[in-house]
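Write out this protein's structure.
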Amino acid sequence: IELLAGTGDSAGALALLDEHLECQTRLWQNEWFLGRIRISALGLATLSVQAATSPTEQRAAIAERGAELADAGRLSASRGLPAGRRLGIEAVGWLARLEAEAARLRWLTGVQPPALADHIELWQASVAGFGYGHGYEQARSRTRLAELLRAAGKAEEAAAQAELARTLGRRLGAEPLLAELRRLGTSPNRRGGDGASGAELTPRERDVLALLVQGRTNRQVARQLYISEKTVSVHVSNLLAKLGVRSRAEAAVLARRDGLLDG
C-alpha cells in the first residue's frame, strides 16, 4: 500500500487496502481487529496523496472516504480488546498517527480543516506515540510535523524536526522518506553554481517552490500553507524574478535540475 501510494498510484493502493481489509476481517471473523488502526492510518495517508492533486469537485468524496476510515480505526481501538484491557504502546502510536492523518486529509481537502495549532499538536502526539522505539514511523511523523511548522512560519523548529528525520532516514537508507523531505522543501538552503540557481530564497518562498515542483495550483498552495491565494501569487512572482525564469514550469525544472530543495 505504501509503495503504491509513494509512486502516485493511489487508486491501486486503495484497491489493495480494500482487499487486505476483506481478507483480515475474514481471518479474524471480526471487522474490528486491532490491526485496522494501522491500515486505516495508511489509507488516510494514501487519500492525502490523492487529494493533493485532485480537482476541487472530487475532494468532498475523498474526505468522506477518509472519515469512514478514521471512524473504523477508532472503533477498532475501542472494540478490538476484551473488556478491561488497554491498548499496547504500538496501537497507541498508530492511533495517534491515525488522528493526525485524518486532520491532514481534512486540511488538504478543505473539508472541516483543523486549526493550524490543533493540527500541529496532533502530529506532535504522533511523534511522541512512536517514541517507544519505532524510529522510522517517528521520523515519518517528524516529516509531517516539519511541513506544518513551516506553514506556521516556525522555520527553525521545522528545520530541527526535518533534520532529525533526515538523519534517521540516511542511516536507514530510507530513500522514500528522504525524497519526501526534499519535496517538502525542509532541507537547508543550498547555493547552486550560477546566479539563478544560487538565488537566496526566503523560507516561505522555498515552501511555495516545493509545492510548485509538485504541480500544485495557487489555490492548493494557499490551502496547504494557510495563506491567501493573493499572497501565493506574490510569492510566485518573487520566485520567478529571483530565479530568473518566466514561468512556474521553468521554476520547477530549475529546482529539480540544480537541487534547490535537496538536503
